[in-house]
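User: I'm preparing a small set of examples for a lab meeting where we compare how different chains pack in three dimensions. I only have the primary sequence for this one, and I'd like the structure in token form so I can line it up with the others. Please keep the answer compact; I'll paste it straight into my notes.
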Amino acid sequence: MSSNKKKSAPLPASSGGLMRFFEDETKGFKIDPKIVVSIPIGLIVISWAIDLFLAS
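Assistant: Understood. Below is the structure token output for the 56-residue chain.
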């Protein structure tokens, strides 16, 4: 009985549909990932610099 269930169980979804989904163009702003990462790092560095020079 359990062997029948295993044979009739659906196969796992492939990544083919997922890849096509992310290839579609969407509306909105397109920002380079380098900018998205560099802005928070820059803010952290500025915050540390202000803390070092003004907290004396």
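A couple of notes for your slides: The mean pLDDT is 75. Residues 36 and 42 are 11 Å apart (CA to CA).

User: Perfect, thanks.
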